[in-house]
Design a protein that fits this description.
The protein is of the alpha+beta class and 160 residues long. 26% of the residues lie in helices and 21% in strands. It has 3 helices and 9 strands, in the order H-E-E-H-E-H-E-E-E-E-E-E. It has a 3-stranded antiparallel sheet, with no helix packed on it. Strands 1-2 form a two-stranded antiparallel sheet. The chain has a two-stranded antiparallel sheet with strand order 3-4. A hairpin with a 2-residue loop joins strand 6 and strand 7 (140-141). The protein is elongated. The termini are far apart. The relative contact order is 0.11.
Length: 160
């Protein structure tokens, strides 16, 4: 005859193992295959509106596929209050987490992180110019539905 306490402990350990495996698998799927998100900004209106729910494909990042013009991507918002260098317009990220737990919460759980969602209009090597409210890619005027509106500088409300 088996000890009932031993059976209870064994059953609890089996449940704990199942829960741990499920959590690890869920985190791996979320990190490398797909992740749910909610649109918070209006910058992609009318394609996406605030409070739209999306599932982001992370396989293209995991498999290091090239991003193509016209695709919609998400990326972490750069650090605020950085000096803009017109000759080298590269985003900077100064608020990098240092500890293991803070890295886990920021990069895996994505807590305390602001992400942008945008449509790609230029890829590596392209020259983008916005002039008089019109977008030019490699000196050619960009065409299509998304380029019919004029583009403005929000700070001084002028046409770019």
């Amino acid at each position: 005859m088996e000890n009932p306490k031993k059976n209870n402990v064994k059953e609890i350990m089996e449940w704990i193992l199942c829960i741990v495996i499920a959590v690890v698998l869920a985190l791996l799927v979320r990190q490398y295959i797909f992740t749910p998100t909610v649109v918070e900004q209006q910058s992609m209106y009318s394609t996406l509106v605030p409070h739209d729910r999306l599932i982001l494909n992370r396989l293209c990042i995991t498999t290091k596929q090239e991003i193509k013009r016209g695709e919609i991507i998400t990326f972490e918002a750069p650090t605020d209050n950085v000096q803009y260098n017109k000759n080298n317009p590269v985003a900077t990220y100064n608020n990098e987490p240092t500890g293991l737990f803070s890295k886990f919460t920021r990069y895996v759980l994505e807590l305390g992180k602001t992400s942008y969602i945008k449509r790609v209009i230029g890829v590596a090597g392209d020259k983008i110019l916005i002039e008089n409210g019109k977008v030019y890619v490699n000196r050619r005027r960009a065409r299509g539905k998304i380029f019919k509106r004029r583009y403005y500088n929000r700070k001084n409300r002028s046409i770019l």
